[in-house]
Design goal:
Layout lengths: L5 H11 L9 H16 L8 E6 L4 H14 L4 E4 L11 E3 L2 E2 L2 H15 L6 H14 L5 E5 L16 E4 L7 H4 L3 H8 L8 E4 L8 H8 L2 E4 L5 E7 L2 E5 L7 E6 L5 H13 L6 H8 L9 E5 L2 E5 L5 H10 L7 E5 L7 H8 L5 E5 L10 H10 L4 E4 L2 H15 L5 E5 L2 H18 L1
Parallel strand pairs: 1-5, 1-6, 2-5, 6-7, 7-8, 13-17, 14-15, 14-17, 15-16
Antiparallel strand pairs: 2-3, 3-4, 9-10, 10-11, 12-13
């Protein structure tokens, strides 16, 4: 087997499998079984830590980040697998809150390559198996696994999680998951296991949702029914009553940062997994907790910039609600992939932005053409400029703010992980030049 560094591995994986998305468990499960068998033969049988799997249209990352922070604050050893990444592949696999190094991932890739035989794996499937290999070797108490797409047929679902979480159910990825909330719910609930806890943070489920949950055979913990938030006790704080936990009441939890419903689901899931939680440690862990690309605020060239990966209508509604009135203008820098409901994203945000700057995502073959996005905005009567790239669009927005010399204008970058990544990369290069 040739020696490859991580960059070479990733280039190979991007080109090897004929489809970027190829849902199904048979191939990835077969390779995982081979890895387990080879380790048993070597006298190194695989023993998995407690596993919590998280699916949902929106909110997965926030729920996982909350669980990681709280578990670490209690002294547990934690592994976290998420996707996609923003700047570095290593972001996808973290141990003790830190991305693992290149060599650790390469060793896992080498083991997977030796085990797969003639089975073709997607980029995501290879990465999923790599995370599992890394976590098995890291002596963890808990591994937190984010579903990549849907749930039932996602590679993560080869793991029989001790606790499953569904954060939200909305229209997205309809080409793979179905074009109704009911069909999408069935796919996401596919991560549940009979008699094991299933935490639901979706307060407004689709028609027949209770029956769908019951069909899984799992033990449900549903928000606003089994575990409950109270956002009215004091400003900027909420209380939470967990189900089946002792003590099960927490007050003084921070509203700011990640959405309270996702924090609540995180605490309920940890409790269901058997982890004892102390109120002071929970509050300290959640205080000021933020996540890259989730209403993340930073300063670039003396301009306030908000980064948000909102890429479907439900996330756009949440973003619109989070953008408080300001004395200046909100300017949009946006781009989406071609399987996204661009008109549905524009709708909730149509009254927010004084100007839209749209540019094509340059690092994905699934990018929507800038002209297509511009035409939707034009037909909606919105002021829009189009550019060849996200980078050009962002630079133009920065120039507009500088020209007006207004400290009150805010640029909001959204539409995709790719869109946010482009701006983060620009900022990184700018910081490097300054240094």
């Amino acid at each position: 087997m040739p020696d490859r560094n991580l960059a070479e591995w990733l280039t190979l994986l991007e080109a090897r499998h004929p489809a970027e998305i190829d849902l199904g468990l048979e191939r990835v499960a077969a390779v995982w079984s081979t890895i387990q068998g080879q380790r048993r033969q070597q006298g190194n049988a695989i023993s998995l830590p407690t596993a919590i799997t998280v699916a949902g249209t929106n909110g997965k990352g926030s729920c996982l980040a909350s669980m990681q922070a709280v578990a670490l604050a209690h002294g547990y050893r934690v592994g976290l697998f998420t996707s996609p990444h923003f700047l570095f592949y290593n972001e996808r696999i973290a141990v003790q809150g830190q991305p693992v190094d290149d060599q650790t991932i390469v060793r896992a890739f080498d083991e997977i390559e030796a085990a797969r035989g003639d089975i073709s794996l997607t980029y995501f499937e290879f990465g999923t198996l790599a995370a599992l290999v890394v976590f098995v070797d890291a002596d963890l108490d808990l591994m937190l696994l984010e579903v990549g797409l849907g749930g039932r047929l996602d590679a993560i679902n080869i793991i029989d999680a001790d606790v499953a979480v569904v954060t939200s159910i909305a229209l997205d990825h309809q080409a793979w998951l179905g074009d109704t909330r009911e069909l999408i719910a069935v796919e996401k609930l596919g991560i549940a296991r009979p008699s094991r806890p299933l935490v639901i943070a979706e307060a407004d489920g689709p028609a027949g949702f209770d029956s769908m949950i019951a069909a899984t055979g799992a033990q449900p913990f549903v928000i606003d029914r089994d575990f409950k938030l109270d956002l009215k006790l004091e400003p900027e704080r909420f209380s939470l009553r967990l189900a089946g936990a002792e003590p099960g009441f927490f007050k003084g939890l921070p509203v700011a940062g990640l959405m309270p419903s996702n924090k609540a689901a995180a605490l309920q899931a940890l409790s269901c997994a058997g982890f004892s939680l102390e109120a002071d440690k929970v509050i300290a862990a959640l205080e000021g907790l933020s996540l890259t690309g989730r209403q993340q605020q930073l300063m670039i060239n003396d301009c306030t910039v908000i980064l948000d990966v909102a890429h479907n209508p439900a996330a756009a509604m949440a973003l619109a609600a989070a953008l408080a009135p300001i004395s200046g203008r909100y300017l949009a820098v946006a781009s989406v992939l071609n399987d996204k409901d661009w008109p549905g994203i524009v709708g909730p945000l149509s009254g927010v932005f004084a100007q839209w700057y749209v540019g094509e995502i340059s690092d994905s073959e699934r990018a929507t053409k800038a002209q297509t996005m511009h035409e939707v905005l034009y037909n909606a009567g919105l002021s829009s400029s189009l550019f060849e790239s996200v980078e050009d669009a962002f630079n133009s927005a920065l120039a507009e703010v500088a020209k007006e010399a207004s400290k009150d204008d805010v640029i909001v970058v959204f539409g995709s992980f790719h869109t946010v990544s482009a701006v983060l990369s620009m900022q990184r290069e700018s910081d490097r030049c300054i240094q």
